[in-house]
Amino acid sequence: NLYSLNKVEPMPAYLVFESPKVSSKKTIKKQIIEPKVDETLITTPIIKTADTRKELEAVKVEKDLLIKEIFNADTKSSVEKISYYSNIIRNQVIMNWKQPSSAKEGMSAEILITLVPTGEVIQIKLTKSSGNQAFDNSALNAVQKVSKFEDLDMGRKLFDNNFRRFSLIFNPDY
C-alpha cells in the first residue's frame, strides 16, 4: 500500500523537465534602404532668402549700369540710339497708317510731333502738305491713333535734344 492514512510516508513525486519552447515565429528584420545620393551631382549650395534678394538687386544694378554704359558710350552710339528710337516711333505710326487710294508716288506730308518723356503725344501739326487732303489727314490720323509711343526708355538729355519735338515725313513709297 503506497498511500496510507496512518503512516506518514513521503509521497513519490516525479519531476518532468521540459525544455523551453522555441517560438516558431520567425523574426522579420526590416531593412531600411536609404537611397544612395551621388554627392558629385549635388553641388548647389543652400542659399538663404535674404542673400537671394541681395544678389538679385546686385544683378539688377549691374544690368542698369551696363545699359547706361552702353547708351552713354560715345557720339557714334548716340547716333545709333537716335536711329533705334526713331525706328520704334516709325513702326508704331506705320502700324496705324491707312494710306488713301489717292496716294501717289512722290507725295509727302511732314508732321511736327511734340512728346512728353512718357511718350505721350501732346501736339500734332501739319507743317508741309502733300497737296492731297486725304493723304494729309491719313498721316495726321496715324499719329493721333498712336497717342502714346511705347518703349521709349531713354535718357532725359537724348529725349530733350531729339524727341521732344521732331518731324515725321509720310510718303507712299514705304
UniProtKB/TrEMBL annotation:
The keyword Disulfide bond does not apply. It is a single-pass membrane protein. Its main location: membrane. It is found in: Membrane. Gene3D superfamilies: 3.30.1150.10. Keywords: Membrane, Transmembrane, Transmembrane helix. The keyword Cell cycle does not apply. GO terms for cellular component: membrane. This is TonB C-terminal domain-containing protein. It comes from marine metagenome.
